Amino acid sequence: MLNGIDQERVIEHQRGVCLFGYPFFSEKLLVPGYDPPRFLAMIGNEEDGFKSLPVMIPHGKRGNSNTKNLRKMIPLPFEGDENKAVRSRMRSTRSANTADNGLEESRDYHPHYPRDGEEWYVMMEHGVSDVDDQGWMYSWSFKSRQWKGRYGFVRKRIWIRLPSTTPELVQIHDLGSRRERMESQQSHVEEEMQQDETQDTVVDRNTALPEPNEKTDALINELKTCTLDRKRFELLNEVLHSWSKYDLMELTKEPILSSILGTFQFETSRERFRNEILDGLAK
Asked: What are the pLDDT digits (tens) for 77-105?
């Protein structure tokens, strides 16, 4: 689908160690001269190929002072303090939005971060290679051709930026308008159903919609069977576009809300559910 579309890709690399039985990955563990740089820019498209360009990040006031162009080359807001950059990256992941084409949008609302037309996405589909919930692929060496979704001494993930006119991507602000159209259509259908009931129209039990409790129970069971939080959000997005406003409000009530939150693996996913879905239903 993305073949022939000019795009910018940035490969992010990290090396890891095991401390007290827990893996710890950081770009600071990369071996200079042996490992690839933290960010490696790939510019081009699938048909014509990509050309690579290492991205040099200055430290403090040393190095490249052209920070304006540097911000356009790396998928993180440029800040002299590396700790601030890490915090900015953590804020950006909470606003990620999963699209149908396997790209996960990650926009940081830093005042210096590129705005419309310059959004970065984490690629979540790599053919035969699996990824974790954050888009990382793991292996025992950066030179290896075998990458998987867990276990390894090194890991990498691919950030991608497409032209703003690319129609295949679903922007997060578009979901609200789509949901409003669906709710408007659903409301019109409910009004017609109520008119039919006043005219003593007999409704076939076999075609009647299931009760809200049955629908929510089925949804929770499907969420529990999902292996990744990304799949859970894909299922919830389908629900947002197909359920009525009344059924969606059932998701905000207890104990249904606690049951849904309990299906997520990570706290960041629960926070994203509260910020995106619950806040959207409250409007």
From this structure: 444 444 444 444 444 444 333 334 444 44
Note whether 152 and 275 are same-domain residues.
no
Would 8 be classed as within a structural domain?
Answer: yes
Q: Which helix (H) or strand (E) holds 160?
A: strand 154-161
Which residue range(s) make up the domain with 135? 1-72+117-165
pLDDT digits (tens, 9 = 90+) for 198-209: 554 444 444 444
Q: What is the DSSP string of 42-74?
A: EEEETTTEEEEEEPP---TTSS---HHHHHTTS
DSSP 8-state symbol, 91: H
> What is d(CA 94, CA 108) in angstroms, rounded to the nearest whole number?
9
Pairing of strands 49-54, 103-106: unpaired
42 within a domain of the structure (yes/no): yes
Report, as an integer, the average pLDDT of 198-222. 63
Separation between Cα atoms, residue 19 and residue 22, nearest integer Å:
5
What are the tokens at 183?
Answer: 């709710």
Which residues contact residue 87 at a Cβ distance below 8 angstroms, ignoring those fewer than 6 apart? none
